């Protein structure tokens, strides 16, 4: 079973994934895979202003993130129709939400869907969980996290409050339309665990 945890920067995805991992005895994979994927590393360089005008293109950035996930395709396919649960800290919906927010429109979400689930053949998640954390709260968490850990310096996306607000709204639209499968919108770990247990 593939379960993706989605939300804007600072929403609490990593905290929830760690809690659910213990409860479900689940495997965990976080995207972007900065430690092992050259595509993710290039995206990180761009988001910290070290790749010229690369970040100016929403499509270029989305492609880098998509190729990072494609690098984990074989690993993800092991969980399709499996009794083992893998929790994903971000997945394809993050590309759709951030791209829609950057381009001020939802037409790009079909392009992301076709790119990642179509051309790149990534497996669809069994359940997508949107952490319904308000952008103001998420922003304060991201700032606090960066203050505590200088390696977590906020990138271009994280520093852009308007982008985070638009991304939050884009995520809401994706979830409400059940984009690429079932969604659950909540910030209550108990509700999430109950739904995951029911589904598995």
Automatic annotation (TrEMBL):
Gene3D superfamilies: P-loop containing nucleotide triphosphate hydrolases. The keyword Nucleotide-binding applies. InterPro entries: P-loop_NTPase, Thymidylate_kin-like_dom, Thymidylate_kin_CS. Keywords: ATP-binding, Kinase, Nucleotide biosynthesis, Nucleotide-binding, Transferase. It is an enzyme of class 2 (transferase). Belongs to the thymidylate kinase family. This is Thymidylate kinase. It comes from Corynebacterium alimapuense.
